[in-house]
Amino acid sequence: MKQIRKRLTYSNVMSSIAVFLVIGGGAAFAALGKNTVGTKQLKKNAVTTAKIKNGAVVNGKLGSGAVSTDKIADSAVTTGKIANDAVTGDKVSESTLGEVPTASFAKVAGSAQNVYTALIGSSGTVIRSVPVGVTSLKLGTGIYEVDFHRPIATCTWFVAPSGDDFIPQLGEASAVPRAGNENALFVDRANSAGSLTDGDFYAQLYC
Q1: In angstroms, rounded to a whole number, what is the distance separating the alpha carbons of residues 40 and 158?
Q2: For residues 159 and 83, what is the distance between their CA atoms, to the nearest angstrom?
Q3: Checking phi first, is residue 167 left (phi over 0); if not, alpha (psi -120 to 50) or beta?
Q4: Residues 138-189: pLDDT tens digits?
Q5: Coil, strand or helix: which one is 156?
Q6: Cα–Cα distance, 187 to 84 (Å, whole number)
Q7: Sign (positive or negative) of CA dihedral 194, 198, 201, 206
Q8: For residue 8, what is the DSSP state?
Q9: Which of 31, 45, 124, 159 is 20 to 30 A from 72 (CA-CA)?
Q10: Could you tell me where the DSSP H helices lie in 60-198?
Q11: Among 187, 192, 30, 73, CA closest to 124
Q12: Residue 177, SS3?
């Protein structure tokens, strides 16, 4: 031991340590103290996606506005990912919404009834209707079908010869429920003599 001690010098010791570190490689540096590696010790782009543990990045670690629109994959936000009431009316483009069935039928002021009004031309075309969507078909001379697109069994109706501005005309008009179509009226349009004839008429439904 005395012989070894005599030969130990500072340079010998440091040389031996250097050789040990080179031979030991990464294993020698593995024994790093706690909190030894900080942000400054990480090279740029050193932490790759594969090195991030699943579920490691939680909400609390995301900065405000960190995830921009272009970083969200197409179809990534599904219905199940949207919280109840998260999408408000001012965030919806109205032009993308279709008409809700029967929702456009206005209530008669002061009553619980809905009113459906249509002015039908002599050819069977709908000149105008409230709400928009009433359809009509000419079946023969003075014979028409007016479809309100809702069951009419519990409704009452009124038809009369009429011009473009709902101005009464001479003649007659009568209506009954259309067989085979619970949404429509079967309308006869006649002249003053009672003979079926083509002509404009007004139809109104109260439900």
Answers
A1: 85
A2: 50
A3: beta
A4: 999 999 999 999 999 999 999 999 876 667 778 999 999 999 999 999 999 9
A5: strand
A6: 48
A7: positive
A8: -
A9: 45
A10: none
A11: 187
A12: strand
Termini Cα distance of the chain: 115
pLDDT of residue 111: 53
Secondary-structure percent of the chain, ordered helix, strand, coil, rounded to 5: 20, 25, 55
Domain ranges of the chain: 115-206
The model scores a pTM over 0.70: no
Three-class secondary structure of residue 89 per DSSP? helix
* Distance separating alpha carbons of residues 117 and 132, to the nearest angstrom: 9
**Residue 31 tokens, joined:** 């024994």
| Structure confidence by residue, pLDDT tens digits, 75-120 | 667 777 777 767 776 676 655 655 444 444 444 444 557 899 999 9
Mean pLDDT of 14-22: 54
